[in-house]
Amino acid sequence: MKKKINLLIIVSVLGLIALSIIQGYLINNTYKLKKEAFITETRRSISQIDDFSPALDSLSDIWQDNFLNTIADYKANTATRADILDGLQFVIDSINDTYRSEYQKELVKNNIPYGIKFHKRVKAIVLQDSIKNDTIFDFEKTPKRIVLGDPISEDKEIGVSTTLWQTDHTSSRIINGENKEIVFYLLFQTQDKMDIDGWEKIVFKQMSGLLLLSLLIFSVVIGLLYYSIKSLITQKKIADIKTDFVNNITHELKTPLATLTLATKMLKSNEVQQQPQLVDNTVNTIERQNKRLQKLIDQVLTNSLGYNEIQLHKEEVHIENYINTILDDFLLAVKTEHVTVNRQFLGSKQTIQLDKFYITTALLNILENAVKYASDNIIIDCKVKRNNELKISIKDNGVGISEKDKKQVFDKFFRAGNKEIHDVKGLGLGLYYTNQIIKAHHGNITVESKEGKGSTFILTIPFN
Ligand code: ADP
Asked: Do 64 and 190 belong to one domain?
């Protein structure tokens, strides 16, 4: 059964891990899809701005006109390539602030609710003619960056589109005193880039419902699993306890029942019937065994009571005298000279309100256990101390209780699983009942013990 439970726990945990991995994978995929959808949507809005804004268009016209002029100069050999790029940079710098502020205005107009940085970056400038291509600028081959718009660091930029401006241009220049026509074909490629402020947060926000729901489902699954395994373990414990109890009570009942069977057989025999003394002895045996059975049944019925079912009849008791009487009676009852009880009283020449009958039962249970679970010479130290509460500690030099069993000795029907100890008769109710009695007095009981080194039971009872 224990193996089965362990297997169940392992399988459930593995299942849970697999489920978490699948869920993580799905969430990651959803995140990627949402991110893609969000970026595509933003791209679409941004493209519209660029296409339909007259203000941005007229700014573009400024740099484009200027640029075509410098190219014509270059073609007329009155400007170098460096002049073209410097000229372009100069115009862009002069219009850039206006461009950026116009762009932000367009974003507001288009109801884009998050911050966006945008820029156009020159990718390539090529002059084509029938003989050869003349590359003025190639983004890939130079560290120089010509950018119109907001500065964006390369690790943050998101591509919007690549635009190709192609134009067939004719202008006139005076060369060597002659008016000449300059014709060129221009390819001007730009890349549009953007950076969306805190886009990760925006996507996460969009996914928050899904994340919360999965977290909730996950917690419910873990909770259910924990609850199921816990109840399985509890049920197994209860089943074990029940089996133990049935075994113990059968064991306890066997001896008196066997004696009763034997005694009744004896009473029936003519030989015994003719001897009145033997009849008397046998009847006494039957009476004793009968009482023993009765006591056993009472023990099961009474000692199973919970603390709230115990009806206390408290009376004023002189602590020292009362405990001395219990110890004296106990010594008389144990009938063995191997038991020594050491007593120590501190400030206990006082009275306390308690139920004499129940507290006597509680203390006797502990004292009897000290004998039941003892080594050869039994030494019991009983210390009674009165501070704000009454503290009684009963220490024995017996077999002791293991760390694991210590937590359970006050549980109903619990008996320590030690073979040595199991030879001792018992139902596992004594300490349970003792604990209930002390609880009914609003006190508490603890045990300190080490296997083979004896045990100390400490009872604390408050004064009211
Ligand atoms: P029972 O004695 O009928 O088994 P108890 O409730 O009195 O039931 O005790 C529960 C278990 O606690 C015992 O079976 C025993 O294993 C352990 N125990 C109790 N008292 C002592 C003790 N003084 N020394 C060692 N073990 C003890």
From this structure: yes
Mutate to test the pocket of ligand 1, among 251, 363, 372 (most ligand atoms within 8 A of CB): 372
pLDDT, tens only, 278-303:
899 999 999 999 998 998 898 888 88
CB atoms within 10 A of CB 70: 20
Q: Is any ligand 1 atom within 6 A of the Cβ of residue 401?
A: yes
Tell me the torsion sign for CA atoms 163, 167, 173, 178.
positive
Evaluate whether residue 304 is within a structural domain. Answer: no
Tell whether 196 and 325 lie within a shared domain.
no
How far, in Å, from the CA of 81 to the mean position of ligand 1? 101
Last residue of a domain, one of 189, 206, 223: 206
Q: Do the domain assignments include residue 264?
A: no
Report CA(245)–ligand 1 centroid distance (Å): 14
* Ligand 1 atom at minimum distance from 426 CA: 3
CA 425 – ligand 1 centroid, Å: 10
Which residues are registered as beta bridge partners of 126? 135, 187
> 131-188, pLDDT tens digit by residue?
788 999 999 998 889 999 999 998 889 999 999 999 999 988 888 888 888 889 999 9
Is residue 196 in some structural domain?
A: yes
Closest CA to 71 of 125, 130, 145, 26: 125
CATH code where residue 418 lies: 3.30.565.10
Please write the tens of the pLDDT for every residue from 71-95.
Answer: 999 988 899 999 999 999 999 999 9
Ligand 1 within 6 A of 427 CB? Answer: yes
Dist. CA 260 → ligand 1 center (Å): 29
pTM of the model: 0.57
In a domain, 389, yes or no: yes
Number of domains in the chain: 2
Write out the two tokens for 165. 């401006």
Mean pLDDT of the chain: 90
Containing structural domain, residue 394: 310-462
Smallest CA-to-CA distance from 23 within 226, 203, 222, 224 is with 222
Q: Final residue of a domain: which of 173, 206, 239?
A: 206
Whether 314 and 172 share a structural domain: no
- 399 CB under 6 A from ligand 1? yes
Nearest CA to ligand 1 atom 23: 370
- For residues 203 and 206, give the distance between their C-alpha atoms in angstroms, rounded to a whole number: 5
What are the backbone dihedrals phi and psi of residue 402, each rounded to the nearest 5 degrees, phi first?
A: -70, 160
